[in-house]
TrEMBL record:
This is EAL domain-containing protein. Keywords: Membrane, Transmembrane, Transmembrane helix. The keyword Hydrolase does not apply. The chain crosses the membrane at residues 6-28, 40-66, 78-97, 104-128, 140-160, 172-195, 215-237. It comes from Pseudomonas triclosanedens.
Length: 687
């Protein structure tokens, strides 16, 4: 027997190559799993080549490490054939682990195929030495080497398959697996070598013509490392690219989520918006239909928000809304919904144990919002009106429930603000009436259905000094309508502009008649709504009306509410300045209900302050109101403004107001609003 020996350096290198090749193969298997389409084939092909060269060169370097006391060489054709077998079986193995699933039988088949492939490569490589008289193999070790090849292949396939997904520490785990695989491949090789017996007198048939030893070793190592290196590099770069793509797509997903959040929530308060609310109502309807139970839909509208917004500006208004949102949210359970669906409109969606619980909840919310708010250093007071629709009962769909809760809210507002109403079927009739009213209002002006009533104004001495023109609508079916039934509607639809022009014209016409009757010192007062005041044509309309009826401007008083005058301070000043420049008399109506700044009041070119009738009403009972009225009087005197008290109903009030120093009085006690034709007769009757 010839005794072989091993070069330890080359053995070590063969081990390294085996481990590196295994690592590359595992890495490529990972790429295959995440790739799609034709790149999969590319990865399998390239991976097969790299892995095949790796395994084969491990084997070959192992052969080179081995020497016998005779010269050795390798037949080129057979050697190349063994390389091809290595590549094919590697490619097959990679294709196998790139499957979606790897059932046991398939793993077994793969292990057998790959194990056989590696063994074929090994023993064909041995055969390439063309030993004469031939190599004898120890059957036990030979069998063991086959078993190792199959087992190692099975383990390798299984690991490669499990490692396909990029799990945490994947590189570390892959390194460990590559170590195991590398050792197994090397183990197979050296077991196979140990099985080989070279009888004495053997000689190597390939030695004279085949590949020689020395230069081959270097070449093979270099080429192998280059191929494996390139494969590994490509794989790593591609993984980078892919993880960048993954990052991009995850940030895209996040942006998408933020967009959805934006689309479903109100920007200011972060509460759900109408879209999300409607969806939640729909879901709750479904839930109640399946499991029973009740829920309430509460439509909540703030009272007194607009004046705050007008007086302090949008920024403060926004802060207030946020505070309101926070209070509402904090008072509810997390499964309840508070949504903001309009400027100062909120909707509460609450599951109830008993329908009666809605009462407690609604009054809770109302008293919650009635507490003063501290916003940006200001103490602000607002209130809320709530309309409640219950499910089941008050509507079958989310639209109907919302509509009915809205109708109930309007009802609550109509009943005096700061309260709640449950929906009743009759409210729907109201809504229909409302629509009809709007329809009629559009036609009213052309049909000449408006009339003015005049309420006299008196000096403190009791002498009449003019009248306030108050609009009435002679409705063909409903009779004489008061302004509170249609002014808000006219404002919302813009109809107030032509109607207001008509009032101006008609009041001037009437005043002209009185003027000609010798009442030259009288003034007629006309109310302006906020929308008219903002309208560009106001100053021209006033001038045209005065001109048309040849009326001195001092005979016309324009009444604007405090809130309107304070709304957009600079543009208000400009318009008021032009009107005052024409000589028109200006009055600040409902004074005391808004939030006037004293500084601003001083700059206003107004001539008169009209104390709101709310203060006059409780004058005798409420000492606060008396204090407020005397403060307003003092303020008016300081600013050189006339003070008018409206809503005087009792002689007690009359005395009080005269004593406090009001310049003029107006009220039911002294004269109710009446048509122009009765006006003069009425005055002389009371005088
Ligand atoms: P306002 O400007 O505060 O008008 C005074 C209101 O107080 C009138 O109600 C008048 O009838 C009522 N009033 C007068 N004396 C007394 C009293 O002693 N006791 C009580 N309880 N009320 C008294 P009216 O006519 O219903 O008008 C309501 C509001 O409608 C007016 O409030 C005004 O803001 C608006 N308005 C009336 N006419 C016009 C108009 O031509 N154009 C505009 N834009 N608004 C108008
Ligand atoms: Ca008025
Ligand atoms: Ca008033």
């Amino acid at each position: 027997m010839l005794v072989g020996s091993y070069d330890p350096a080359l053995v070590l290198i063969s081990l390294c190559v085996a481990i590196l090749a295994s690592y590359t193969a595992l890495d490529l298997a990972g790429r295959i799993a995440t790739a799609k389409g034709w790149p999969v084939l590319l990865w399998i092909g390239g991976g097969g080549v790299a892995m095949g060269i790796g395994v084969w060169s491990m084997h070959f370097i192992g052969m080179l490490a081995f020497s016998l006391p005779i010269p050795l060489g390798y037949d080129l054709d057979l050697t190349l054939l063994s390389l091809a077998i290595a590549m094919l079986s590697s490619g097959f193995a990679l294709a196998l682990v790139s499957q979606e699933r790897l059932p046991f039988w398939q793993l077994l088949l793969g292990a057998l195929a790959m194990g056989t492939g590696i063994s074929c490569m090994h023993y064909l490589g041995m055969y390439a030495m063309l030993m004469q008289p031939g190599i004898e193999y120890d059957p036990l070790l030979f069998g063991l080497s086959l078993l190792i090849a199959v087992l190692a292949s099975g383990a390798a396939l299984w690991i490669a398959f499990r490692l396909r997904q990029n799990t945490p520490y994947v590189r570390l785990v892959r390194g460990g697996a590559a170590l195991v695989m590398g050792v197994a491949i090397v183990g197979m090789h050296y077991t196979g070598m140990a099985a080989a017996r070279f009888p004495d007198g053997s000689f190597c048939g390939a030695a004279p013509s085949g590949l020689g030893n020395d230069w081959l070793a270097l070449l093979i190592i270099v080429v192998t490392l280059a191929v494996i290196g390139i494969a590994l590099l490509t794989s790593v770069l591609d993984a980078r690219l892919e993880s960048r793509t993954a990052l991009l797509s995850s940030s895209l997903a996040q942006a998408n989520q933020e967009l959805t959040q934006l689309a479903l929530h109100d920007n200011l308060t972060r509460l759900p918006n109408r879209v999300l609310l409607e969806d939640r109502i729909e879901q709750l309807i479904g839930k109640v239909q399946r499991n029973g139970g009740n829920f309430a839909l509460m439509f909540l509208d703030l009272d007194g928000f607009k004046p705050v917004n007008d007086a302090f500006g949008h920024h403060l208004g926004d802060l207030l809304l946020k505070e309101v949102a926070r209070r509402l949210r904090d008072n509810l359970r997390s499964e309840d919904t508070v949504a903001r669906i309009g400027g100062d409109e909120f909707v509460l969606l609450v599951e109830l144990a008993e329908p009666e619980d809605a009462v407690t909840l609604a009054s809770q919310q109302i008293s919650l919002l009635a507490q003063p708010f501290q916003v940006a250093g200001q103490e602000l007071r607002i209130a809320a009106s709530i309309g409640i629709a219950l499910y089941p009962g008050d509507g079958a769909s989310q639209q109907e429930l919302l509509r009915n809760a809205d109708a109930a809210m309007y009802h609550a507002k109509g009943n005096g603000k700061n309260g709640y109403s449950f929906f009743e079927q009759s409210m729907n009739t109201n809504a229909r009436n409302h629509l009809q009213l709007l329809h009629d209002l559009r036609a009213a002006l052309a049909r000449g259905e408006f009339v003015l009533h005049y309420q006299p104004k008196f000096a403190a001495s009791g002498e009449p000094i003019g009248a306030e023109a108050l609009l009435r609508w002679q409705h063909p079916q409903r009779g004489l309508l008061m302004p509170d039934t249609f002014i808000a509607l006219a404002e919302r639809t813009g109809l107030i502009i032509p109607i207001g022009d008509w009032v101006l014209d008609e009041a001037c016409r009437q005043m002209r008649l009185w003027y000609l009757h010798g009442r030259e010192s009288w003034r007629v007062a006309v109310n302006l709504s906020a929308l008219q005041f903002c309208h560009a044509g106001l100053v021209d309309s006033v001038a045209a009306a005065l001109e048309r009826h040849q009326l001195p401007a001092r005979c016309l008083t324009l009444e604007i509410t405090e809130t309107t005058a304070m709304r957009d301070a600079d543009s208000s000043l400009e318009i008021l300045g032009r009107l005052s420049g024409m000589g028109v008399d200006l009055s600040i109506d409902d004074f005391g209900t808004g939030y006037s700044s004293l500084l601003y009041l001083k700059r206003l070119p107004a001539n008169e302050l009209k104390i709101d009738r709310g203060f006059v009403r409780d004058l005798e009972q409420d000492s606060d109101d008396a204090a407020i009225v005397s403060a307003i009087v003092a303020l008016g005197q300081a600013l050189d403004l006339r003070i008018v008290a409206e809503g005087v109903e009792t002689s007690g009030q009359q005395d009080f107001l005269t004593r406090l120093g009001c310049d003029s009085l107006q009220g039911f006690l002294l004269g109710r609003p009446i048509p122009a034709e009765q006006f003069l007769d009425c005055l002389s009757a009371t005088a």
